[in-house]
Amino acid sequence: MKVLFFNELSDPRIGSSVRQMYSHAERLRELGHETAVVTCTQDEARARPGEFAEEEICGTRVFVIHSDYPVRLRAWVSLDNPRVREPLRRILDAFGPDVVHAHLIHTHLGYGSLTAARRAGAAVVLTTHDVMTFCYQKLTCFHGGEQARGEKRDYAAHWSKCIPCQRLRYRPGRNARIRAVLERDVDRLTTVSHELKTVLEANRIRVDRVVWNAVRPQTTFPTPDEIAAFRAKRGLTGVPLIAIGGRLHEQKGVGKLLEMLAILRRDIPDVRLIVMGKRDVYDREFADQARLLDVDDAVVPTGWLDGDELQQAYGAVDVFVTPSICFDTFGLVNLEAMEHGKPVVATTFGGSQEVVLDGVTGAIANPFDVAGFAARIAEFLENPRLRAEAGEAGRRRVQEHFTIERLADEFLDVYEDALRTRGSFVTRPEAR
């Protein structure tokens, strides 16, 4: 079987979902299938406008298409991006995929890429990792915010909510057009968590199957000496250590975590927080808040980590935290921390509760309840036995439920289902 992945992101260092895609492609090749990736770049040195280039990343053949435009126009351009049309057609003709498996396509490849794949004769599978099929950004309005203490679950998009949020970026008819393309051109639509399935169905988007995310099992882990060196380099020897990682944004709960840190320091004065994300973003958006809360001396921004250094960071922490105040669809970083035997305290919003078992592998808490969330972190910091038991339970859970082998097997079933119904679009009307 020839499987062609669509993903606008191609650098495995910048996101867990991208690393997962390459691991999935590698596993498929181990099973005798042929794989490649279509991605986009804004760098003309990497691919010229109107053309495509070829690279190899993580052992996978990668076709690179140039696309660059003002992102404020995304609601229009992403429906059918003329910049990628012809290069994509040539790639589809040259590779001749049996299955196109699309992941992140919301900006440059666009929904027109699904139509192109269908017209090329491929079975089309779309995996939704986020809410962009009906939302313009991270889903943030559903829980009611501070006023409702995050307790609402108003998932359906509506112009009365979207226009005040997006203003001139709001495009009437966007969501209806996306739904029409998904219905006509996608043979199987999967999503990464049952809670995301609930959200999509609340917005009239069909979901055929939930396939949880996964990690490629680590063959080696950092040694105690390497972990000690990581801590020593940053002045963290012997201190209780919590961590947050990934894209740093207010909606990922970084500001809430700083408030929690101020509470934690009352009883655990030597606690430290490492922030594993872009240093310039932390300095620009959160450093002032840390100073106002008088916790800046307890925060260690590491900058973006990858490779061995990222693994050492996971090994060094005592508790990993994901306090998102947006809808966090799954949280692959939770798996990465759990694989290293770390308890995770995660948000109640989204799919994290399907990954982290409350009271078993960590805790699930509402980040709008800052004191309550901080108390759940403190439980693990103050009780080494509880921390070790939760960490070991998390490691077992990853090994039993979240391996790339399981993911590949499930998607092979999805591909076979899609191939059986390929071509059924001819009975459906064209999207307008």
UniProtKB/TrEMBL annotation:
Keywords: Glycosyltransferase, Transferase. CDD domains: GT4_PimA-like (cd03801). Residues 19-211 form the Glycosyltransferase subfamily 4-like N-terminal domain. One of its GO terms (molecular function) is alpha-1,4-glucan glucosyltransferase (ADP-glucose donor) activity. Transmembrane segments: none annotated. InterPro entries: Glyco_trans_1, Glyco_trans_4-like_N, Glycosyltransferase_grp1. This is Capsular glucan synthase.
